[in-house]
Design goal:
By secondary structure, the protein is mostly helical. It is built from 13 helices and 4 strands. Helices cover 52% and strands 6% of the residues. Strand 3 (150-154) and strand 4 (157-161) form a beta hairpin. Helix 1 (24-37) packs antiparallel against helix 5, helix 5 (82-98) packs antiparallel against helix 6 (103-115) and helix 10 (180-186) packs antiparallel against helix 11.
Amino acid sequence: MRTVVPAAPMPGSRRSNALAPWSFGEVAQSAIGYARDGFPTYPLMNEVITSTKRNIENFPRTSALYLPKGRPPQVGEVFVQTALAATLQHMADQEAAARPRGRAAGLAAARDAFYRGDIARAIVKYQKENGGILSAEDLANYRSGFEEPVAAAFGDITLYACGPWCQGPSLLQALNLLDGAELKNLGHNSAGYLHRITEAVKLAFADREAYFGDPRVIDVPIEALLSREYATQAPRDDPR
């Protein structure tokens, strides 16, 4: 069995203090509002929840959230996440209480609220009740790192993505296979336009399945994968 520690709330590095002048509460304000007041369910969201309905029904709390009327929320219905709003607001409140000691102290308090405080205890309790293996130590000792992004050019635009531990570089690979001038001449959403994009994405995702992974564990030839030379190969040879 594998489990992961939630990494999204806040990075665990002093470097994060220099990233922006904003507080956690300021950054999270819009997210808290959307979670508390809700937002209209959009088509893709409805499709995803509908396709995973059987799995969702195995977990009562998850089911109560994503199947609020015993079914997936319909397109246009307001989707509310009260618990998420309360979680983010609690983090913001802890930050505000510690903020008189400085911005770094405030950010640390918000982070500790999730990884060491009441939220962490609630996560561990739920894990134990449902056969999970995530422990208080796992949460308390977790730290997110910072990595340099990978990049590729599309015309005069330089695009950046996360490393090959996610699918971010797939977008860059797909763009390497496309020509902006050609796409413009084909016409937006024309049959030729869509065909070019579809085939580029298919090739990029094939490489994702074949080569991507955590660089700390496997050798990912990311520089070769993102090179123009590799993009122009036909047929595409192994980049290693």
